[in-house]
Amino acid sequence: MSAKSTGPPAPRLADIRSRWLSAVTGNLHDDPVVAGAGLVGSLGTGQADDWSDIDLLVVVDDACIHDYAAPGRLPCGPGELAVAFDARHNGPRGTRAVSGQYLIDGLPLWVDWHIHPISQASWAADCAVIFDRRGFGRLSATFSEHLSAGDHEQATPKGPTDHRALQLALVPIAGKRIARRSPDAAQMIEFIGGPHAPDASWKDQLATLRQLLGGFTALGLPDSVAAGRAYLDLVEETLS
């Protein structure tokens, strides 16, 4: 939830994000087990650019939290869910979190779901509330500060295949950092499997990511690989 640099305009990405979020917001509002929802991260603080992902905080009945946090239960907008990861270790004990890559018009959209029970519900200082059926209180802490406080859920172990799927899904995240000219791009590329090259040019970084994409074909996720390539092409087109 740290401050992000602003990338150049990318209206295609902003459009798919807007369409997905509009549909999902309607689905959340129509779901009787959902007591409230809000935007956190850069969309919540108003610091988002066209490259920003979606961070959603959803409050549900305590008895429903385990079932609701299943990827197949979460509401979906246009496109399809390509891969999803249990990210409960990113939240306080008693909460759940899911990170997913959605594919819309051939491009990837990353969404972090934070699912909290009513018994632990409150809106962070920097959360933009979408709707609230119960009148939850507002914290003085930011959402990032709230997540880092207290005990956390234990991480769910990932096998080699899941780890590789995560690396594949992070290729567009690395591409986003290149588009923003972020120094963190080199570290992300290294995590995905690239070399340690902190001084590489953005063109060399894109070339490395394209080469890495070729190593993910054995995962059986061709649509995610294709979306990664399309995203990198968009980054290059935008920066050229």
Question: What does it look like?
Answer:
- The chain is an alpha+beta fold.
- It has 2 domains: 11-148, 2-Layer Sandwich (Beta Polymerase, domain 2); 160-239, no CATH class.
- 39% of the residues lie in helices and 19% in strands.
- It contains 9 helices and 6 strands.
- It has helices spanning 11-30, 41-45, 65-68, 143-148, 160-169, 171-179, 184-192, 202-213, 222-239; strands at residues 34-40, 54-60, 80-86, 96-104, 107-117, 128-132.
- The chain has a 6-stranded mixed β-sheet with strand order 3-4-5-2-1-6, with helices on both faces.
- Strand 4 (96-104) and strand 5 form a beta hairpin.
- Helix 6 (171-179) packs antiparallel against helix 7 and helix 6 (171-179) packs parallel to helix 9 (222-239).
- The radius of gyration is 18 Å and the shape is globular.
- The model has no long low-confidence stretch (mean pLDDT 95).
